[in-house]
Amino acid sequence: MPRIRPGRVRTKNTNRREALRLSSMAPEDYNVRPGEVKSIACPDCRTWRRIMGDTVLKIREHCISDKLADGEKHTLCPGSDQLVEIDIDVRRWQARQNRLLRDAMPQDNRRAAQQFYKPIPAPAAPVSRINAEITLETARQSYLAHRKGCTLCAKGQHCTDGGILARRYVLVLNQEPARREAREEQERQERRTVRKQMAPAVRKAQWAKHGGAAVETANNRCAERIAGSLSEFRGPQLPLAPQNPAVHDRRQAELGKQYARKAPARSAA
To answer: Exposed (0-12), middle (13-18) or buried (19+): which is 199, by Cβ within 10 Å?
Structure first.
């Protein structure tokens, strides 16, 4: 890349004015960025002109009229050969200008210093390769949806994915009774757990409904023992002899004959 050389001052003449200090001008009226051509807005004609020189800086000689091609007379601008003195901190000025340019830029035109490219999403996996919870209804719907959109499966022959979905549906169909029994057992277990958790509350409600002073009094009441009973937890003594001895003997004889006919006779050894 060719090096940008500063403009050479071809004359030592000046406009005999005091050197123009950049600190006395608006920051947007000059450009002293490193690596760029120095320029300034002429204080007299307010047109941008180049700053010539390396150590001694001057505003380049220029005309005050911009219509010389139309035949107007050449009139030298009083700001020509104006000495310029850089008495500012260039880095701080550059940082401020960069910030102002960034803030003035429309939001749609702003771009980050580092570009982040959104990756292209990977294609979705086929239904036959999705590892998810398979139920009888989901397996059936997946198989029917594939068969509806597949011309080969609609004709009675299965493609690769159609065969996988069909085998999966048959497998789930065979496993459905065991799954149903497992679900019912789990529901029964949950019901038992709920009953165990609610048992204290149920007993408390029953006691509040049927309990109280009356039940407590009945439990603590001491009653006299009934005559003829062995203890307070048993009833009176039951009779040991039959009510009709003749009927009882006849019944016992009939039962003996029935037992004798059923049992085979044994010879004496």
So the answer is: exposed
Residue 83 DSSP label: E
Burial class (CB in 10 A: 0-12, 13-18, 19+), 86: middle
d(CA 32, CA 30): 7
The per-residue pLDDT for range 177-200, each reduced to its tens digit, is 888 888 889 899 888 888 888 888
Handedness of CA 248, 250, 254, 259 (dihedral sign): positive
Q: Which is it for strands 20-21 and 39-41: parallel, antiparallel or unpaired?
A: unpaired
User: pLDDT value at position 253?
Assistant: 92
pTM here?
Answer: 0.37
Residues in the chain, overall count: 269
| pLDDT digit string, tens, across residues 3-32 | 555 556 667 888 888 999 999 999 889 999
Decide: 149 and 161 in contact? Cβ < 8 Å: no
The domain ranges of the chain are 20-105, 127-210
User: Smallest Cα–Cα separation from 59: which of 87, 39, 34?
Assistant: 39
- Rounded CA-CA distance 108/193 in Å is 62
